[in-house]
Design a protein that fits this description.
This protein is α+β, with helices and mostly antiparallel strands. Among the domains are: 111 residues, TATA-Binding Protein (2-Layer Sandwich); 182 residues, no CATH class. The protein is built from 14 helices and eight strands. The strands form two sheets. The protein has a six-stranded antiparallel sheet, with helices on one face. Strands 7-8 form a two-stranded antiparallel sheet. Helix 1 packs across helix 2, helix 9 crosses helix 11 and helix 10 runs parallel beside helix 11.
């Protein structure tokens, strides 16, 4: 009787002979398929450190290795996307106790993981430039860390960038290094914060709304209906003269703020019930585009209160110039008025790309100058080139200024000592066009309107306002009669 070793050899020889003889027959093909190696084992070799030699299972909510993940429905359209980058993984919101994310906890951060063949420095440069050009507020971070933190209104985004060689792989995921076409992996974590106080207040039913329940509170002095044809900002004059935190601003800047506040141009900050410091101006706080538009119209109309031809008209119920500033927006009349006057870029002025105003986005330096200078000069902005601005201002970062704003920057130089840039920023060789503007800087720019020798300051406007009114046979006062600076 054959022993087990010879029996095994004999069976193997018989099977091999059968397969070879029937290679072209259906029976041979079926037998060959039965004996073939499992393709799943070939494509996914068993990991030596994996317990029980089992394939790792995909985590719920994540894309499996080697596949393309699906972009979440709530992925914000505001976040720039690197060209040709491949989404590899989406991590759902992780809550305690395995709770599923819903509308009530939608403010939890979410993370998407991407890979690209581009080198790390190009990816980092792309996101840094994209955030700056779209007026995101960038937090100061270490450039060597490969992390960018940016904020736009209520959206907070963190981009973490790493070269593939720096990624620590584990036994449960396939290393990106095994793919020679992948050079960089980056994570985009995003979260929308809770609604701002203004949005929360807007969501509360007010007197006159169908959902309002309760007694109607008495009107404050500032809310009483106007009985005269004076500018709307006149009622705030008496209450706006004493800010409690102007000691945090430079001395001359604080005087600019006081003059404008006395004119009723600057709104009061709501009193903080948790602190006994009302009437805070917060000079270093970033000003939004809507707030600056409001101040711009109020300041101009207060300066030229006796010259209706120089006032900016607020718009009535008309077709909105911007998709994000409907008629129901509290600042619609002001923003629409600036657009209809051609003082800010919009489709009305021929800029078909300016369909959004982004009212809550931070105001940048170049935007502040672009809106203000045409009101100073009262004429079309001159043609400008990078060389022309370089010869005048000598800024080192001229190439970063938008072409539209470049014309306003050149016209501002021609205003001599009454230039907005000189008054706000002093002597500087860097304009930093994308840098957000503070409330103190905005107030400094609005302290003076007009060209040198023919303009008016807030201080002069106050003197005229405080003079006893006397009948005059002359028509409206001309700004050119005001004393020079």
């Amino acid at each position: 009787m054959l022993n087990s070793r010879h029996a095994t050899k004999l069976v193997s020889l018989v099977l091999l002979t059968s397969v070879t003889a029937c290679a072209n027959s259906p029976t041979g093909s079926n037998l060959e398929n039965i004996l073939a190696a499992d393709p799943r084992v070939q494509n996914n070799p068993v990991l030596g450190n994996s317990r029980d030699n089992q394939q790792p299972k995909a985590i719920a909510g994540q894309a499996t290795v080697g596949s393309i993940a699906q972009l979440p429905d709530d992925f914000p359209t505001e976040i720039p996307r690197y060209p040709n980058a491949q989404l590899k993984e989406v991590t759902p919101t992780s809550l305690s106790g395995g709770e599923v994310a819903n509308q009530e906890n939608a403010s939890q951060p979410k993370l998407t993981r991407w890979v690209t063949a581009a080198p790390t420095n190009l990816v980092q440069s792309f996101y840094q430039n994209a955030f700056q050009q779209n007026n995101w507020e960038l937090s100061p971070t270490d450039a060597q860390s490969g992390k960018l933190e940016a904020r736009l209104n209520d959206l907070q985004v963190t981009v973490s960038i790493q070269p593939v060689s720096a990624i620590n792989t584990n036994t449960n995921t396939q290393s990106a290094e095994q793919n020679p076409e992948v050079a960089t992996q980056f994570d985009i974590q995003y979260v929308r914060n809770a609604a701002t106080s203004d949005e929360q207040q807007a969501a509360v039913p007010q007197p006159g709304d169908p959902d309002f329940i309760g007694p109607v509170p008495p009107l404050d002095v500032a809310d009483q209906p106007e009985q005269t044809s004076e500018p709307k900002i006149a009622n705030a004059t008496a209450a706006s003269q004493n800010f409690t935190d102007l000691n945090t601003a430079p001395q001359q800047v604080s005087q600019y703020i006081q003059d404008l506040a006395a004119l009723g141009v600057l709104p009061l900050e709501p009193s903080n019930s948790k602190s006994n410091q009302p009437n805070k101006f917060e000079p270093s706080k970033i000003i939004s585009r809507r707030e600056y538009a409001r101040w711009l119209v109020a300041a101009n109309n207060a300066m030229y209160r006796n010259s209706s031809a120089k006032q900016i008209r607020e718009a009535s119920a008309t077709e909105p110039a911007f998709q994000d500033v409907p008629r129901t927006d509290p600042d619609f009349a002001v923003i629409q008025g600036l657009a209809e006057a051609g003082l800010i870029p919009s489709s009305l002025s021929g800029d078909l790309t300016a369909v959004l105003f982004r009212p809550n986005a931070p105001l940048t330096r170049e935007q502040m100058i672009l809106w203000k200078v045409p009101i100073d000069t009262r004429q079309a902005l001159p043609s400008a080139s990078i060389d022309a601005v370089k010869e005048t201002w000598g800024f080192q970062d001229i190439a970063r200024i938008e072409p539209k704003a470049l014309r306003a920057v050149l016209a501002d130089f021609q205003n001599g000592d009454q230039s907005n840039i000189r008054r706000v920023f002093g002597y500087t060789t860097l304009f930093q066009p994308k840098k957000p503007v503070t409330r103190a800087e905005a107030a400094t720019a609005l302290w003076y309107f007009g060209i040198s020798g023919e303009g008016i300051s807030a201080q002069e406007a106050l003197q005229i306002k405080n003079q006893p009114s006397q009948p005059s046979a002359t028509s409206e006062a001309s700004p050119s009669s005001f004393p020079d600076q």
